[in-house]
Design brief:
The relative contact order is 0.12. The chain is an alpha/beta fold. It is built from 13 helices and 12 strands. Keywords: Methyltransferase, Transferase, Ubiquinone.
């Protein structure tokens, strides 16, 4: 699929690194760092990691000679790559993994992470190698173009928390791409967020809009434009439209409720401690709940003034509240304790 805009990959593992390097691009270290912090905040349990590995049965795809070929999409900072590297070492089954990630800085973090994980032990590098590519997977034919993967050349495709970061139309094209590069019997394993058809009485699309407003206020405009949450039913329809057999699609779900129970949490979601932004986000949340369902206000919710919060936390920290008064109305409250009911789960789809 020769194309002049193919970005050369960076190989880590038993393969020699090519002389070419990833095309220069201004790193976005802030976004890479934030992804790591958000991962810590939302948390991943040992049970979820175990379930994820069980969804990737390397032995089913190993012929005793050739390494299992994997493709990790929206690879981020290398969490999946590290888990699969450990999986390969534990099972003794060699894996060659291609990764594609649009953010150059995250790719750099992932490469450093895998280099550190593999160390200098040649036996570990014999069992896992990674070829990292910069690129946008949501463009039609992007997988073949970016990773130079032929049709029916990949055993397993994984994508963790990536599908909800793209619009519905892009998901549809991506899944068609995935189906094309998978071998017959190959599998897609997606670990992602599911939004109920109605979130506490609120249509899922409204949850997407509220989160988009939060991203806009926080200055993450590209996320606000591209992100679109989906329900389990929508994802299943997209998979069948891509060609996957409906009888060979399975979905599990871990239900959890996302609660913004402190003002500190609100500031973290915004990525800053700008009180003006906090007020804007609070207004968006109260409008959202007021329009649809006040039951989303959690039992632990409390109301406090931003002034009281600032006085409490910043009088001795160099910030004494100066400059807040002009942006505060007489009754400017910040309500915490919002609960948003969403779930994460693993979907498996096997190619006919």
């Amino acid at each position: 699929m020769g194309s002049p805009d193919i970005t050369p990959g960076i190989i880590i593992g038993k393969l020699e690194a090519p002389q070419e390097t990833i095309a220069s691009q201004r790193p976005d270290e802030d976004q890479a760092s934030r992804v790591n912090i958000l991962g810590q905040l939302h948390g991943i349990t040992p049970e979820q990691i175990r379930n994820f590995k069980e969804a990737i049965p390397l032995a089913n795809y190993y012929n005793g000679v050739d390494p299992v070929i994997m493709l990790d999409l929206a690879a981020g900072t290398g969490f999946v790559a590290e888990q699969i590297a450990q999986h390969a070492i534990d099972t003794g089954i060699p894996v060659t993994m291609h990764t594609i990630e649009i953010n150059h800085a995250m790719n750099a973090v992932a490469r450093a992470r895998i280099e550190s994980f593999l160390g200098v032990d040649p036996s570990r590098r014999d069992l896992f190698s990674m070829l990292a590519h910069d690129g946008d997977i949501t463009t039609q034919g992007g997988i073949e173009r970016l990773a130079k993967l032929r049709e029916a050349s990949v055993d397993i495709v994984s994508i963790k928390m990536g599908l909800h970061e793209m619009p519905m139309a892009n998901k549809r094209e991506l899944l068609k791409d995935v189906y094309r590069v998978l071998k017959p019997g190959g599998r897609l394993v997606s670990w992602d967020v599911f939004v109920p058809e109605r979130t506490n009485g609120t249509p899922a699309i409204e949850y997407t809009r509220f989160i988009a407003e939060k991203d806009r206020i926080a200055g993450r405009g590209s996320m606000a434009i591209r992100r679109e949450f989906h329900t389990k039913g929508e994802l299943k329809r997209l998979l069948t439209q891509a060609g996957f057999n409906q009888e060979m699609i399975s979905m599990s779900q871990y239900s959890w409720v996302r609660t913004w129970d402190t003002i500190e949490r609100w500031f973290f979601e915004l990525g800053n401690e700008n009180p003006s932004n906090l007020i804007r986000l609070n207004q968006a949340a109260t409008d959202y709940i007021g329009r649809y369902d006040e039951s989303m206000l959690g039992d632990s919710a409390f109301t406090g003034t931003l002034r009281e919060y600032m006085d409490l936390h910043y009088t001795n920290g160099g910030f004494d509240g100066t400059g807040i008064d002009p942006i505060l109305a007489d009754r400017q409250y910040v309500v915490t304790g919002y609960s948003f009911e969403i779930g994460s789960g693993i979907s498996i789809a096997i190619k006919k």
